[in-house]
Fold Selenocysteine lyase/cysteine desulfurase.
Amino acid sequence: MDVDVLRAGTPGCRNRIHLNNAGAALMSQQTLDAIVGHLGLEARIGGYEAADAAADRVAAVYAGLAELLGGRTDEIALFDNATHAWQAAFYSVPLRPGDRVLTGRNEYGSNVLAYLQAARRVGAEVVVVPNDADGQLDTAALAGLIDGRTRLIGVTHVPTAGGLVNPAAEVGRIARAAGVPYLLDATQSVGQFPVDVDEIGCDFLCGTGRKFLRGPRGTGFLWVRSGVLEQLDPHVAEIQSAEWDGARGFDWVPGAQRFATWELNYAAVLGLGAAVDQALNLGLDEIGKRNAELGDRMRGLLEDTPGVTVHDLGRERCAIVTAQVDGVEAELVVARLAESGVNVTSTEPAHQQFDTEERNLPPLVRFSAHYYNTEDELEHAAALVGAMVGKRL
């Protein structure tokens, strides 16, 4: 991996130190060109006509995502964001009064709200699996909590507020043995390191383009294992997902397209395709190795800075690092770093409700490097943070 070449092909690297890749990574020039090029085509010949002209390239986006995840093209549906993709899967699982949904303490906030809504609507029960001694989902406890009422296991692979990597494949082994559908939120993991749906053993997986895949905002995707389709009842029927039977009924279309909607932002879709191609060309093994190294380096720098406390959990950790600066609120740290040309963000306790119930942490500063970042950038950011400790900002 030639980092200098990658940085030269990333316009944003010229202006900022971007350590907010868990929010939205910097797009490469080739991704930007794909988006702008299609927008120009729409302006010249019309939106429908441009989509027809790009049909083969759009089809290649599905193929690229399938290759990235280790699935099949007909198991992919595109969305405008990962939350809508996740919701399409979750709300398709029929729940009845007394049914149980098992999830982890690090589940993403929007997912938690959906669980609570389902509990309110139908009288289902949300069961939160405890963490083990390392702070990751306790798989032994998970196995012990599964019973005849368990209808779904929902897990966030990498939480939004820390470097933890949950043991997704072990969860998959338990889910398969119990015959329980398994929904994995891979929003922060796809593009950051290799993610293979067969190795993990999930039945659904959602992801986004804007984070570690380096695609545009407004793109998301859902993978659904073909073997579970007949157990599901998609919560939206429209002309992309279903076919009128000529009378007063309809049939779902084959594959994951039964979850999709007809209208798409094709410029963004093609940008997503360019980003996926770049990730595949670089190799997810190489990407994952470098990202793990950068995460370890950032974590070590902050741990070695007096007055800074790192709050990451887990046995396996990734490129996301969360920390607290003594005497300085997270939002102020973010603002001062931005003034120095460094992009980071802060966590929201309400975005990880079950974890907040247990640890009750304040907002933390979140640093998330990606493979195009340099060690010098990490050291500079850590030095800026160290200079803030104990000062009135």
Q: What stands out?
A: Residues 104 and 164 are 12 Å apart (CA to CA).
